[in-house]
Design brief:
The complex is a heterodimer of chains A (622) and B (113).
Chain A lengths: L1 H34 L20 H10 L21 H6 L4 E5 L5 E4 L1 H6 L23 E5 L2 E9 L5 E7 L1 H26 L6 H12 L6 E6 L5 E8 L7 E8 L5 H7 L10 H7 L12 E7 L7 E7 L7 H38 L10 E8 L10 E7 L5 E8 L3 H18 L6 H19 L5 E10 L5 E8 L5 E3 L5 E3 L16 E7 L4 E5 L1 H4 L2 E2 L5 E2 L1 H9 L7 H15 L8 E8 L2 H11 L3 H4 L8
Antiparallel strand pairs in A: 1-2, 1-5, 3-4, 4-5, 6-7, 6-10, 7-8, 9-10, 11-22, 12-13, 13-14, 14-15, 15-18, 16-17, 16-19, 19-22, 20-21
Chain B lengths: L2 E7 L5 E9 L4 H13 L4 E12 L1 H15 L4 E5 L3 H10 L1 H4 L14
Parallel strand pairs in B: 2-3, 3-4
Antiparallel strand pairs in B: 1-2
The chains are: A alpha+beta (622), B alpha/beta (113).
Chain lengths: 622, 113
Amino acid sequence: MAPRAYRRRVGERRDDHTRHFRRSADVDEESGAQLVTAADVRGSDPGDGRISTPSADRARVWSADAPTTSALPPLAPDHDAPIVPDWSEVVEHFREGLIVCDADGVVRHVSPVAERLVPEVVSGEVLAAAGVAALDGDGRFEFTHHGRRLRLRPVALSHARRCWYVEDVTESVSRADALLAERARSLFLAVVGEKLGNPLHPDRAAAAVARLAVPTTADVAVLVLAPRSGRARWWRAVRAEDEVPAVDSGVLPAAALPSAIETGLAGTEPHALDWLVEQAAEAGWLPGLDVTGATARVVPLPGRDDPVGVLLVARRAGRWYDEADLDLVRAFAARAGAALTTAMLYRDQAEVADTLQASLVPVEPAPASGVQWGTAYRPAQAGLRIGGDFYGSHRLPDGGSVFFLGDVSGKGVEAAVFTGQLRQCLHALHRVETQPGRLLKLLNDALLETTQAHGQGRFATMVLGVARPHRDGGLTLTLAGGGHLPPLVLRASGEVEVVPLSGMLIGVVPDPRIGEATVHLAPDETCLLYSDGVTEARGGWRGDEQFGADRLLTAVTGCHRMPAPALAERVEQVTGDWLAHGDHDDIAVLALRATGAAGRASRHLHAVPGPTSAEPTRELPE
Amino acid sequence: MTFTVTSAQRDQGVTCLRLAGELDLSTAGGLTAEIDRLVADGHRELLLDLTELTFCDSTGIAAFVRGDNLVAADGGWLRLTGATGRVARVLQVTGLAEVLRHDTADPTRSVGS
């Protein structure tokens, strides 16, 4: 009793196992078919024989039920072995089913396996009567019959008889398909990783995410980013036959987002899937997609804390999302989320950098009556747009202007930040002190704290002056020197003077000696301030010779009729021409020209129209 | 052009650094490193001999100022001597010649104090 029961239990288990496997194999087949076709690898049967071979018990039962077995003709009639095995019994254990026809096409033998796979074929009848088209062919053939994938191999026997070997390859095919599908998924994710690998722009990354989702994971894919300031931006890719999917984008108020999207943005995949398609259609996201029968899923894109967005994928009728598909969508979403998070982080940082950089770029001098300004600026690191040189001006309530040009030690961002501090200091200090010498000392004291705290030998050299219109139409310049190169004055006569201005570095000692000088500019005379990037520019025919003060004097001699902007540009130009190679110090030039009679005229003319232009407007903070 | 700095102990605890060549962005780091090394070894009174220095730009100036700040914090000093030509002119323009002039009568007057 015991062994028998045991055997039965084993038999039942095996039966259960087989059925279970078939069910899962069906699923695999379906998902596999969705992703790839695998005709080229279907021959690779692992050959373990677990599935296709019926159990011995079954075969015996079937053979009992099938009396046609006895009609099996001898397979090897030419050999007359005295004792041959019971061939029909042997054949029944083949994984392949067997159909044998005689020369007239009448079926003479159908093995139990063949009977099960192609029940239409009946022994004793003409094969063609079975109505299975695949059996008409001469070559190997694979076809789907009653939901199974069958492989047919016809073989000619002696006496014009024919034999068909029928094999059920459903499992091996689906296994190969599943393998290929897995490979396709891996490949897809690898491509996704590559395409989203270096995202620097969130918009471009978002568009790429939507585009990559189609067609592998969806017919329509909509990426919705987490709302910023109450507005949610979305990108959509729609599958197009034989084309790169088209991507468009739009904005929705956060309040108008479908509830499933909100659920996704909260970090969970919505459970109620019934209304997903309707919700997406209502949002206008599924153009040209037949809503009936379509399926959709919403998957969050993981961000740093909350999801960075959600991905809605939709397929037209007939293509469900099974677990394997969903896993793929989730894996895709994880990569997309990481890429978008990085891109947004980069954008935020770039915004900060741009804002800071913009605040450090020299601001053009404020227009002032009787003064024509000219400036030139060429930072050592051109790509940075900022450097250690600076210039600027502020209007004074009495109609004059305070102006300055200088150079801080060091280069690049660090130097630029220091110029920013310095300009901010001046911006505030010129309101309490307008005498250039005293203003420079105040600035020195303010900077001394910073420079000593940092201890990196930080200091500035600069010329600072106040220009006030003179009765004769010219300008009176009161200049203070803080260890900077002395300015030049281009006289109307054509003479070029060096202003005798000395002084000490700013930000080094508590009570620096500040040089002072007063210069009168007649109308059409120009004062030129420049940084050492001009005179120390290295070039010439040897390549390392300094431009020098003498060459600068020569270069501007004869330029006394030039407007201030042209003069500043010329100085930058000749310096640039002198430079042998791209490597140079920051270059800054500030020219101010007394506009004389024209300036006075314009002052009178512009004083008339209204209070807004007559009253010099306070300049905005830089 | 090359830049070299050699240091030698002199009497009364003063360390003398002899600078030669061109002192600019590409070479100032060497001077800064040498000053740092000397300060780490306990030297507090540094005299920089610029007789053989042919060029000095703002990064060189920065190295001088930084060095002086460094030793002045411990009651020491850094002074310059022997500058000629272009180097003397740069020190003149920046006013540093005045600040870091080597004055045997009163070498303890420091920049930062």
